[in-house]
């Protein structure tokens, strides 16, 4: 048994549904050798995948960025997700999808003769953030962003993100807030939001951050709640003086960051803009 991976549900690997301990990939898989692949993390509530179309659109963009051939059309991906969900007894869970360039002799360049991409899908046990986290908020530390310059690709080359997250764990906080050249980028596996003077701010969508599926969603929720939203470079000083800070991701949904580098953010409690966005998020899930 692998903790957190339901042993009773089956994973998908290259056309087959298998038990997780039966699914094996070659040691020459370029995902294993080079981190040459992409992934998606789709949250599922009561059997309903949330923002599936947006996740699959991003999967298409990631594959195109790496010039990996699409293994499935849209219906094929939806069918795979449905088949995975049918093979688990979990109703609220995570669908993880991964595509690598496939198996080839170790050589940095792309294989000169086409190889079949490795396609993997699994269901992971997951529960939405508990009430205590929603009500109390999270703690974070600021760190320099030392990752590469293609953070817009949802690549499985996640070493920079792994090392960043470990810094949070070592500092006994929940997440890092990364800065590059004095400007906010994102968390280790989350987008970061700033509230300043009644406005919701997020860093621009460019190669320095992953455009989270919740990036678009929070923009929509802000518009619905009449909260002005601006996407622009945000200096470290603005983050330090923010009225509110938040993070978002498929697994964390939207949560307040109430302490940064040991100092309270604003009032030190989840703020009113967070409360409005959180309510909007909950309403979208309830409407699924
Ligand atoms: N991470 N930025 C990074 C670097 C991320 O890894 C993620 C998501 C996000 C938020 O994206 P979304 O709203 O689509 O989840 C931003 C996922 C959850 C993960 O790697 O597990």
UniProtKB/TrEMBL annotation:
Entry's Gene Ontology cellular component terms: cytosol
GO biological process: amino acid biosynthetic process; carboxylic acid biosynthetic process
Gene Ontology molecular functions: D-alanine-2-oxoglutarate aminotransferase activity
Keyword flag Membrane: no
Name the UniProt record assigns to this protein: D-alanine aminotransferase
Cofactor(s) listed in the protein's UniProt record: pyridoxal 5'-phosphate
Organism: Achromobacter insolitus
Origin superkingdom: Bacteria
UniProt family annotation: Belongs to the class-IV pyridoxal-phosphate-dependent aminotransferase family.
Entry-linked CDD domains: D-AAT_like (cd01558)
Pfam families: Aminotran_4
PANTHER family: AMINO-ACID AMINOTRANSFERASE, D-ALANINE AMINOTRANSFERASE
Keyword Transferase appears in the UniProt entry: yes
Keywords: Aminotransferase, Pyridoxal phosphate, Transferase
EC number: 2.6.1.21
